[in-house]
Design brief:
Low-confidence stretches: none
Number of strands: 19
Number of helices: 16
Distance between the termini: 16 Å
Shape: globular
Helix content: 25-40%
Length: about 475
């Protein structure tokens, strides 16, 4: 008989793990408590507008190539990936300056020279330093498990020699000293819930992998990636939606099945959890894992009756007091003013994401998770007004009159992250990617007890973001297959 694996949670990590295990010959059942798949990669689709709720760009598309190849198809057959260039437009609110981030080394060097000729001269050295960290930390360490401390201890001296143990901001500042450039090349950890002033420079590789391999948009949004994965799964796996897993059964120290809220148990020789780490440990009867959870987000989705051609596909608006703002949100869990916004306008690339002549705009703002004690949704109502004020008054974005054009509006607060995604304290990215919560110190891909329990997704190694969760699926499925061969 084929070994039975139950995958709890159908985020990108759970879906990728299920595809890999199906390709390895396991009998796979996926259980998802929501009516649709995707987890953090969910989509809001209404009245002709489409919004990605979670990730909105793709890097390291070769990871999708590997996955679809295992499923007997190809990325080209399943998705249409379009390059985005420049990757972002970054605009600073205090002085009205902006930077087009991307476009290849020569274009990037020319953009930097507008701010600092000296920094432009050091850009190649920055790229080389980032390359070494990328190859060691992402391509090597990101594809192997850390079941014990030995692997991490052997890795630390190399990371120290590469400067990867200083903060991301400190690493960038060694090469790019002009304040705008230091922010522009250091903000990327925010995409996985990290504070650039505290997380280790291992995560500086996030900027490097974009600079060397580009940024991609999947036609139809990241949701189209979820849909493509679902198509592969339904050819051989059982996919149960609207079913909540509430317990992990054991027998003789091993997992024996997954208990469902609606009654009944799914027998299993192994369980792969894509649920939140805290929820998984409760289901398995394990003690909580001490961890500091990442920030959350306030997401504002706006369907406009008119288009705003001055917007780029990806935009960043950085307000005054950037460092204080990040420190307030991530460390002090306060909201004392200031603004930092990511603005996604996919209809710049794919007009079909909005009705003819309209615009689908998603605005994301980092906010403390629910441990900060803010009053939601009242805080969300206030933020909505502050965000719209900032967008309409920032002339460089060309969003004057945005309020009057809104014909559809939806928003998520930390409460939605908690209640819809099961994220403890409404975090948006899993455990904060600090050094003490990375690699061996993160929830392991394979639980020691009970045997047969595994983890994928942002809560385990190597971490959050589309490349991170796809790599967790690769690491975890290989561990499971290896264990089942014994």
């Amino acid at each position: 008989m084929r070994r039975r694996v139950v995958v709890v949670g159908a985020g990108l990590g759970g879906l990728a793990a299920a595809i890999r295990l199906l390709a390895s010959g396991f009998e796979v059942t996926v259980v998802e408590r929501e009516r649709s798949l995707g987890g953090r990669a969910a989509q809001i689709k209404e009245r002709g507008f489409s919004f990605d709720v979670g990730p909105s760009l793709i890097t390291m598309p070769e990871l999708l190539d590997d996955l679809f190849r295992l499923a007997g198809t190809s990325t080209a057959a399943e998705l249409r990936l379009l390059p985005i260039d420049p990757f972002y437009r970054i605009r600073w609110q205090d002085d009205g300056r902006d930077l087009l981030f991307g476009g290849g080394p020569a274009a990037m060097r020319a953009q930097i020279a507008r701010f600092s000729a000296a920094d432009a001269g050091r850009f190649d050295a920055y790229l080389e330093a980032g390359r070494r960290i990328y190859e060691e930390a992402i391509l090597a360490a990101g594809r192997r498990a850390f079941p014990g401390p030995g692997g991490l201890l052997r890795m630390l001296p190399r990371m120290a020699r590469l400067g990867a143990l200083r903060s991301v901001d400190g690493f960038v500042g060694h090469y790019l000293t002009e304040p705008h450039m230091r922010q522009a090349f250091g903000f990327h950890p925010l995409f996985i819930g990290g504070d650039p002033f505290r997380v280790p420079a291992v995560y500086a590789a996030l900027a490097h992998l974009q600079l060397i391999s580009g940024v991609w948009y999947a036609e139809g949004g990241v949701w189209s990636v979820v849909a493509a994965m679902e198509r592969q799964l339904r050819r051989g796996a059982a996919v149960l939606t609207g079913e909540e897993a509430v317990g992990i059964e054991r027998r003789d120290g091993r997992v024996a099945g997954v208990r469902l809220a609606g009654g009944g148990t799914l027998p299993a020789d192994a369980v792969v959890s894509n649920a939140d780490v805290g929820a998984t440990r409760r289901m398995a009867g394990l003690r909580p894992l001490p961890q500091r959870l990442s920030m959350s987000c306030f997401l504002l989705c706006l369907g406009s009756s008119r288009s705003f051609p001055a917007l780029h596909h990806h935009n960043l608006l950085v307000g005054p007091g950037y460092r204080r703002f990040i420190d307030d949100v991530t460390r002090r869990r306060q909201m004392t003013g200031g603004i930092c916004l990511y603005i996604h306008a996919p209809s710049r690339t794919e007009p079909a994401m909005a009705p003819p002549g309209g615009e689908a705009i998603s605005v994301l703002m980092p906010v403390p998770n629910l441990a900060g004690g803010q009053r939601w949704p009242e805080t969300g109502d206030r933020l909505r007004e502050e965000i719209l004020d900032a967008l309409e008054s920032e002339t460089g974005l060309g969003l004057a009159g945005l309020r009057r054009s809104i014909i559809l509006e939806r928003h998520w607060t930390p409460i939605e992250f908690r209640d819809r995604l099961g994220a403890e304290d409404g975090h948006a990215f899993g455990p904060e990617p600090l050094l003490r919560q990375s690699a061996f110190f993160r929830q392991h891909n394979r639980y020691r007890h009970p045997r047969g329990l595994y983890h994928v997704g942002s809560g385990t190694h190597p971490g959050a973001g589309i490349p991170g969760v796809l790599l967790t699926a690769e690491v975890t499925s290989e561990l499971l297959a290896e264990d089942m061969r014994e």
